[in-house]
Backbone:
């Protein structure tokens, strides 16, 4: 299987909108497995297909400490949302960048699993934030889009700086990111 490369901000391909999966077949399962591999390899908590340049509504995540509880969300939909809280978020497409984002605190979502079976789940805490963050990716939205223009400019500069440093030192932060 070809290894996925995770796109990084400000790559314009991160702005593409994903289309619904029409049938959960072996090709979709291969995509899911490749995404999980890329997510775990990058020490990420979640990954959207958009981040590996595939425009399908597919998300993978694992919010467990032990990193042994993969979740698959195909064609996810938020069915209910309530509350509002600010938490610090990161993103595999913005290595080393963290900032505070306001999200619903409790959600109920529906999705298809790896076998194409529908399920619904209540989510709060990290899982709730992660589902909302990853669903944004499917719309071409990044967490920095929720911040002010000024903050985005600062982040853009930090990203450029980080990229320059990385290209010279080869170092990269490996902290959990969504
Ligand atoms: Ni992300």
Residues:
């Amino acid at each position: 299987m070809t290894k996925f490369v995770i796109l990084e901000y400000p790559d314009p391909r991160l702005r593409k909108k994903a289309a619904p999966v029409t049938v959960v077949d072996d090709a979709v399962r291969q995509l899911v497995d490749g995404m999980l591999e890329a997510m775990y390899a990058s020490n990420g908590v979640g990954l959207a297909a958009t981040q590996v340049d595939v425009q399908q509504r597919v998300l993978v995540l694992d919010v467990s400490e032990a990193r042994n509880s993969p979740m698959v969300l195909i064609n996810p939909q938020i069915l209910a949302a309530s509350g509002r809280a600010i938490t610090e978020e990161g993103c595999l497409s913005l290595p080393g960048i963290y900032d505070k984002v306001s999200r619903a605190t409790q959600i109920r979502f529906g999705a298809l699993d790896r076998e194409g079976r529908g399920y619904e789940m209540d989510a709060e805490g990290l899982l709730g934030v992660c589902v909302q963050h990853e669903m944004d990716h499917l719309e071409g939205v990044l967490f920095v889009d929720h911040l002010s223009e000024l903050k985005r400019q600062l982040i853009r500069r930090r990203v450029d700086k980080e990229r320059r440093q990385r290209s010279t030192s080869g170092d990269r932060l490996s902290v959990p990111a969504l």
Notes: Residues 91-93, 133, 137, 178 surround nickel (II) ion (CB under 6 Å). Strands lie at 46-48, 58-61, 71-82, 85-89, 99-103, 106-112, 118-124. Confidence is low (pLDDT under 50) at residues 171-175. The first strand starts at residue 46 and ends at 48.
